[in-house]
Amino acid sequence: MSDSRQSTSRSTYIDSFATAARERSGRALSDYAELWQWSVDEPAQFWRALWDFYDLDDIAETADGRGLVDDTDVLANREMPGARWFPDVRLNYVSAIMRHTDRRGAAIVGVDEEGGRTEVAWSELTEQVVGFARTLTDLGVGVGDVVAAYLPDIPEAVIAFLGTAHVGAIWSGCGQDYAPEGAAGRLAQLDPKVLVTAAGYRYNGKAVDKCADSAALADLLPGLVAHIVVRPPDGAASGDGAVDAEPGSGPRRRIDYADAIGARGEEALEPASVPFDHPLWVLFSSGTTGKPKGIVHGHGGVVVEHLKAAGLHGDLGPDDVFFWQTALSWMMWNFQVAGLLCGTRIVCYSGSPLFPDADRLWQIVESEGVTYFGTSPGQLQASRKAGLHPGRDHDLAALRTLGSTGSTLAADLFTWVDDNVKAGLPISSISGGTDVVTAFAGGSVGVPVVAGELSVRYLGVALESWAPDRTPLIDEVGEMVITAPMPSMPVAFWNDPDGARYRDAYFTHEWASPPPEPVWRHGDWVTVTDRGSMIIHGRSDATLNRHGIRMGSADIYEVVEGIDEIAEAFVLGVDGPRGTYWMPLFVTLVPGANLDDQLTARIASEVRTRLSPRHVPDEVIEAPGIPHTRTGKKLEVPVTGILAGRADVNIDPKSVDDYSLIQWYADRGSAHQW
């Protein structure tokens, strides 16, 4: 990798890349806006420049041995879906990581809820990954087979993933918060040959024994040839560790994880050389109202996209420590592993982000010397409402960037971070998704941060805001579209042989004026500002449409969730009979708060003053909870349908964090007087 970031704090990887890009393009590229414009005008040149910047020729080969000669060697077909990136290249994701293993210190750190700590050194990484890969090979697992995981966010999960990719097999992970049936609803679609599980973990101060659930899941995956189990460390209270006594039937072998990584052989085992778009992993959609869709990403597309997003925009390198609080069911777990591509130490955390209190993650940021901390608006809001002062109470000298995703980061939380975490700390609020396993837009080192905004559209992302007639909009709300392909767009959906489900997911929107070529419609209402930044207003399929005026739910959440007494808000726009419309605001309260007339009036006043009279809800209702997907997304669309009395709304209980809430909302809809 071209590690040309100088000792001065002003020099960054993206600065060095821009210098190389100027030489390649012949353009001035005097600021970020010009660099972005070149990256979307000349995608083949841009991605070739990134390829060279990170010395990827060192880990790749072309079929004819001549390397990358012209633009068609980078992008042979720009049509979406079906763009062909680096068509003659063969490589392996793992090779891009293993070139850093001569580094000293820890590559992966694991921290649990009670403060237990483990680490895998860079010097140990190759041996453990190859050991796991050799075990898979001995089991007959190879290119195109599937390895499934049912694990918390622990270092063993990263090693198992890398061992899987090493042999060209396909990885798919699921967090252990899912019940066996919910996990099987995803993983069984893939017919995995190997299942990797953990005996348990701790959450909210309690031991969660997953031995029985892991065995039950294994029984729901009939094609397994082996079940690999991570035993708890000595003293861990997550089951008795008696993993050899698993109930269930079938011919599968049972292997201890320690034995799996300890496998040795006389001959060297090199990473399998696979085509650029060979499946690396399968991620799943939420599956809230239907069968979860398996989204397939390729080795090469992930390597180049994650080097760009983590290396250039995140400025991650060998001197950094990257910690994003996440879980295996969320794409941010996959993105966290991208730190290893940059030679960066990554931190895995298994436990509640709020136990024993909201200070828990800040303790880890301090103790691990984290330089890039990724979290969620919910965790920051909890920190604010708990009255925390992390910058005063912890040594956060190493911290240089704070990332946030999962939902829109309200402007007042930018201010809270500046006042209470670190003055001037760059905040990277990012937006992307499982679909592309990266961000479309977010913060970028060296670009000014404006509260409530995503600072830039990311390099290589031809993102625009469109009116219904396809007119690009500036400083107006429109549909977010991507007008040119990205390397990490899905290579396919699983079990979608003709590509119909893939096309229907992103490319079949009915525009007032049909585009000459398909564009990716992501389903968000956004504003692209005249400065090139972006504001997200919420899902376009959950739009509030009062008196013909479209409004985004995120704008209301920013205002309401900034009120101290409100823990979380949930606003819905419900079409009723005879053209009626109901816009209730459901809220959960912090302990000790009451939704009385005074608080209700204050909510309405804040919304009216900071947004508009049209944004004021018809009524404010205290709720026992807000339903979310397993990855924390509010269930606006299906619950709106339930309140409207639609019979076609079917929610999968296994996809919801608290399914009991659904009946409560259904009862509210039935009781509403239209």
Task: Report on this structure.
- With 674 residues, this protein is α/β, with parallel strands linked by helices.
- Helices cover 29% and strands 22% of the residues.
- It is built from 20 helices and 36 strands.
- The strands form 11 sheets. Strands 6-5-18-17-19-20-21 form a 7-stranded mixed β-sheet.
- α10 crosses α11.
Strand order of the biggest β-sheet: 6-5-18-17-19-20-21
Content-based structural category: alpha/beta
Oligomer: single chain
Describe the largest sheet. 7 strands, mixed
Estimate the strand proportion: 15-25%
Distance between the termini: 63 Å
Number of alpha- plus pi-helical segments: 20
Low-confidence spans: 1-9, 235-249
Average pLDDT reading: 92
What general form does the structure show? globular
* Overall strand count: 36
Helix content: 25-40%
Rg, Å, rounded = 24 Å
Summarize the structure.
The chain is α/β, with parallel strands linked by helices and 674 residues long.
